[in-house]
Structures are given as structure tokens and as C-alpha cells.
């Protein structure tokens, strides 16, 4: 175990195998909200960590359960925070969902509850939007959801459309609090239809495996960094990745006792990981 906590303080212990071997091939999967930024505010030091990865040509992907934004939108948001990356550095649950569905049923169709990021990903993978007899009802985050939309989705599910969730996060952080997330919408449809959704966001092994293949790395060469035990850390552990929990987001040191599993390493924020590079 590579972490110790006392009275809310964090004692950081570096992973010796990786830190002492700078030539060891490795790459990072990095959550965003709570790791890179909170709302529209940069978490101090995260920009320096990402720049170090770029300078040293260490492979990495931003791995997010937010399906609202397209990759271009995410790149722009990061640029506004002073982090300049390319679209190939972005991997969203919308992409993993669209890629999975395209593999299951090429050129299929879907009724979509969600925003531009999800619609773009589905279109890019050959999927048409269909509100009459779709193959799937695909649920992501969205700000324009109303009862009419949910009622339509329920009707299509009962008529045979399969229920797909981009993620099961129950809520999403916003400035000043939280709002209902994709998981809350999915729970409504699951309860009403008595059907279970297939989730393709973190911690789904589908998304975690796709991301590793994007990095072109072996399992033992991947580190998952995140602020949420239920998604980032659990997903990484299930895949056999090294896991790093940061306390700059939703999980705090005292919360670790609530889980039957632990990360490989826990640190206050990304700036405490710069020395590893």
C-alpha cells in the first residue's frame, strides 16, 4: 500500500518501481473534473503536470464520464484554463458508447437523451437518430430533459429498444453544488420499464479497455488517476491498472474507510505527482 492518512493529512509515498525507473514505459488515464479543474477553475499544479507529460512525450488520455461535450469542446475548455492539448488526448464515455454500439450493430439507430457531445460521437460512428423505431435508447447528460422526453424513451424501450447508459454517475458537480447526472435519468427509466441499462462509462471495462488500447500500452504500463473511488479507482483496479487517487475532488482521506478496496497511491493533487516524471 502506498498511502497513509492521519487526521486528514496525507503522507505521500512514491511508487518505487515506476519512479526509480524513468525509462520504464508508462502512460496515464486522467479524470478531469476534480483532478484538472473544479467547475471552471483550474486546480493548481494540474497544468504543470500535463505540460510535463507533453514535454516528455509520455502517452496520456483525459478520460471523462461527461458525455455533453465533444472532443473539440473539451479541448477548448482546457485551452481556456491554460492547458493546450489535441483532440486525440480526449476520450469520453460518449465515444466508448458510440464505438461499442457500432461494433454491436453497425449503421444502427438510436433515440438519444443527451447533448451535442453524445450526438456527435454517434454520428461519427455511423449512427442515425431515430425517434420512431430505434435499436437503442441512449442516455447521457442533458439540460433540456423533460417528462415528455422520458415518456417517449420509456415507450420505445417497452417496444423493444435496448437501454444504454453512457455512465451511471448519479449527479454532476457544478459551481455551487450538484445537479442530477446520467445515472439518475437511467434509474428513472430502469424503474419504469423494469429493464436494466448497459453502462459504457467508467468503471465499465469496455471503456477502460478501449482507453488502454488508445494508448497502445500493456495493462501493467497504465496508471489511472482520478478523484472518485466508485468510478476511476474501481475501474482501474478491475483492469489491473495502477491507480492514483487525488484528494482535490470528491473523495477525501476520511472517505477511504467506506470502501473495501484502496488505490495504489493517494496524493493531495496532481502537482504532487510531478516529481514522478
Describe this structure in words.
With 277 residues, the protein is of the alpha/beta class. The protein folds into two domains: 23-65 and 203-276, 3-Layer(aba) Sandwich (Rossmann fold); 97-199, HAD superfamily/HAD-like (Rossmann fold). Helices cover 33% and strands 22% of the residues. The chain is built from nine helices and 17 strands. The strands form five sheets. Strands 7-6-3-15-16-17 form a six-stranded parallel β-sheet, sandwiched between helices. Strands 9-8-10-11-14 form a five-stranded parallel β-sheet, with helices on both faces. It has a two-stranded antiparallel ribbon with strand order 1-2. Helix 4 runs parallel beside helix 5 (116-124) and helix 6 packs across helix 7. The longest helix has 12 residues, at 93-104. The protein is globular and about 55 Å long. It starts with a strand and ends in a 10-residue tail after the last strand. Residues 4-23 have low confidence and may be disordered.
List the helices and strands and how they pair.
Elements: E1 3-6, E2 9-12, H1 16-19, E3 27-30, E4 37-38, E5 41-42, H2 46-55, E6 60-64, H3 71-80, E7 90-92, H4 93-104, E8 109-113, H5 116-124, E9 128-129, E10 136-139, H6 147-158, E11 162-165, E12 171-174, E13 177-180, H7 182-193, E14 198-199, H8 205-215, E15 222-226, H9 229-239, E16 242-246, E17 265-267
Parallel strand pairs: 3-6, 3-15, 6-7, 8-9, 8-10, 10-11, 11-14, 15-16, 16-17
Antiparallel strand pairs: 1-2, 4-5, 12-13
Amino acid at each position: 500500500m502506498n498511502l497513509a492518512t492521519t487526521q486528514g493529512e496525507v503522507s505521500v509515498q512514491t511508487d518505487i518501481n515506476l519512479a526509480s525507473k524513468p525509462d520504464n514505459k508508462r502512460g496515464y488515464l486522467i479524470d478531469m473534473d476534480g483532478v484538472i479543474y473544479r467547475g471552471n477553475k483550474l486546480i493548481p499544479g494540474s497544468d504543470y503536470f500535463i505540460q510535463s507529460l507533453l514535454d516528455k512525450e509520455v502517452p496520456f488520455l483525459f478520460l471523462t464520464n461527461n458525455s455533453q461535450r465533444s472532443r473539440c469542446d473539451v479541448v477548448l475548455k482546457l485551452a481556456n484554463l491554460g492547458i493546450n492539448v489535441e483532440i486525440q488526448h480526449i476520450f469520453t464515455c460518449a465515444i466508448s458508447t458510440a464505438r461499442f454500439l457500432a461494433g454491436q450493430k453497425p449503421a444502427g439507430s438510436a433515440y438519444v437523451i443527451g447533448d451535442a457531445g453524445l450526438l456527435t460521437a454517434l454520428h461519427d460512428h455511423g449512427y442515425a437518430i431515430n425517434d420512431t423505431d430505434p435499436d437503442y435508447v441512449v442516455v447521457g447528460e442533458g439540460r433540456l430533459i423533460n417528462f415528455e422526453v422520458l415518456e417517449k424513451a420509456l415507450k420505445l424501450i417497452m417496444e423493444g429498444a435496448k437501454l444504454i447508459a453512457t455512465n451511471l454517475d448519479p449527479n454532476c458537480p457544478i459551481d455551487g453544488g450538484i445537479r442530477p447526472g446520467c445515472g439518475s435519468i437511467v434509474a428513472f427509466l430502469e424503474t419504469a420499464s423494469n429493464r436494466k441499462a448497459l453502462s459504457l462509462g467508467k468503471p465499465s471495462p469496455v471503456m477502460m479497455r478501449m482507453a488502454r488500447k488508445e494508448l497502445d500500452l500493456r495493462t501493467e504500463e497504465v496508471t489511472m488517476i482520478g478523484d472518485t473511488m466508485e468510478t476511476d479507482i474501481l475501474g482501474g483496479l478491475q483492469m489491473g491498472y495502477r491507480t492514483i487517487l487525488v484528494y482535490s475532488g470528491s473523495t477525501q482521506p476520511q472517505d477511504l474507510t467506506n470502501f473495501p478496496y484502496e488505490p495504489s497511491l493517494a496524493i493531495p493533487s496532481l502537482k504532487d505527482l510531478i516529481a514522478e516524471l
